[in-house]
Amino acid sequence: MQSAAAEMLRIENVSKTFTLHLRGGMYLPVVSSLTLHVNAGECVALNGPSGTGKSSILKMIFGSYLTSSGSVLVRCGDVFVDVAKAGPLEVLALRNSTLGYVSQFLRVIPRVACIDVIAASAREDGCNENEAQARARSLLSRLNLPERLWGLPPATFSGGEQQRVNIARGFAAHRPVMLLDEPTASLDAINSAAVVELIRERKAAGAAILGVFHDASVRDKVADRNVEIQPVERSEVCD
Amino acid sequence: MNHVPLLSARGLSKRYGARIGCEAIDLDLHEGEVLAIVGESGSGKSTLLGLMSTQLDSTTGSLRYRRRDGVSVDLDHLSEMERRILLRTEWGFIQQDARLGLRMNVSAGGNVGERLMAVGWRHYGKIRNEAQDWLARVEISSDRMDDAPTTFSGGMRQRLQIARNMVTRPRLVFMDEPTGGLDVSVQARLLDLIRGLVAETGLSIVIVTHDLAVARLLSHRIAVMRQGRIVEIGLADQVLEDPQDPYTQLLVSSVLQV
Predict the structure, then answer these.
(1) How would you class B89 by CB atoms within 10 Å of its CB: exposed for 0-12, middle for 13-18, buried for 19 or more?
(2) Shortest CB distance from B242 goes to which of A66, A92, A109?
């Protein structure tokens, strides 16, 4: 277990610019010179109007967006891995050991039952089959997903149900660094409260959490610090 | 996980006279990795699969493979005998057209059992049991075991092809549009099966597909081909969410949203 002060994530002077080749090579800056850190046991919220690149920041840390400049350091054991410079295999290894990510949208193979989607995530975290099923059942009941749905593929679920499956999948693996992108966006108050509880538990267990929470009441309940993201000057330049 | 690549191509090219099939391909595949090769028709993706699986001879370049015994072999200089042993014991190949990957007039059980006999199994009862196990894993019921694949649907044929390949526990399987031409519900079942096999067995796969959704669901990395060259390669979600190359951007933005 990490000590409470251990720095788990450090972002230094990070920028992200898209080059839109289909728009004549237009440059679209989305994040500019961002620096922040997250310690073990701490939850940091990224705040700011939509379109300021908050999701892009999470994606750069997870490695699904490339980082244009700066470093994205994630602690893995005793060393920091710079996701901005790491190769695909290093990023995959980091995801399997350290990084958890709850995206806004659920993306799964169509035919798989929702409980198996979640159990698979627990198995990747080292659980045996029984533990994985137990973890999945516990998460689904805490998130109030009716048991009659557990055996069904989530494709036909409502937005809120899919989001709960997505959250359960994200929390089924106990990763030391968690990235949450609007985890309560389509949830009602009861289910939002359940997510708040899950986040608090992971914090208490020492996880470093960086999240985007549009819902201020959820944010106030989980975030230890807020980082304000400034809109990037949109001087759209062409080649 | 061993960090020496399982399969490693350097400067691999294939020319048909003046026409380029593949040009200057450098590519490493690691143990347990699923690599998708995507691109439009004529981009050279099937040619590359043919080269990597030694079904085609390269014009220039080298291809190395690390065998189960740890020995790294140069696939260009393998004798025909050595190559056949490798194909039987370490590799599998799933064809888009199951008729090319199966023996259509041999029973389903025979299709699977035949591969075991090729690697030295002799006991009829054991072969039949093992074949039955694998047919069950690909969800072909035992009462169809003695039927020939001519009587099977497209999805069943593909699952039989997978059982036929997996029964010898290959380390590396090449797949050429394995879900091509199947109904979407049948396709989903097949993707689910392939994902399960990767998770359980640590299998490595090189899969050619023009379907970016299939590539995303199955693969760790995606290589995008155009005009015989790899124009972009990276983590599957990165290539699809933050494509760098102009052609990849065009390809990704052309996919219809459901």
Answers:
(1) middle
(2) A66
Amino acid at B228: G
**Alpha helices for B67-211 (secondary structure H):** 80-89, 98-101, 108-118, 124-137, 154-166, 184-201
Residues 6+ apart with CB under 8 A from A79: none
Helix (H) or strand (E) holding A120: helix A114-124
CATH entry 3.40.50.300 includes domain B26-90+170-258: yes
Looking at residue A1, its pLDDT comes to 47
Q: Is the separation of the CB atoms in B128 and B109 below 8 Å?
A: yes
Nearest chain B residue (CA) to A110: B188
pLDDT tens per residue across span A28-68: 999 999 999 999 999 999 999 888 899 999 999 999 999 99
Judging contacts by C-beta atoms under 8 Å, the chain B residues touching residue A92 are: 220, 235
Q: Quick one: closest CA in A to B196, which residue? A: A120
CB A165 within 8 A of CB A62: no
- Nearest Cα residue to B232 out of B223, B240, B241: B223
CA atoms of B156 and B140, how far apart (whole Å): 7
B33, amino acid identity: E
Domain ranges of chain B: 26-90+170-258, 102-169
Confidence of residue A204 (pLDDT cuts 50, 70, 90): very high
Closest by Cβ to B250, choosing from A22, A92, A123: A22
pLDDT in tens, B86-112: 999 999 999 999 999 999 999 999 999
**Quick one: closest CA in A to B186, which residue?**
A111
Chain centroid offset of residue B167 CA: 15
pLDDT, greater one: A156 or A136 = A136
As given in the structure block, the two tokens for residue A58 are 């999470």
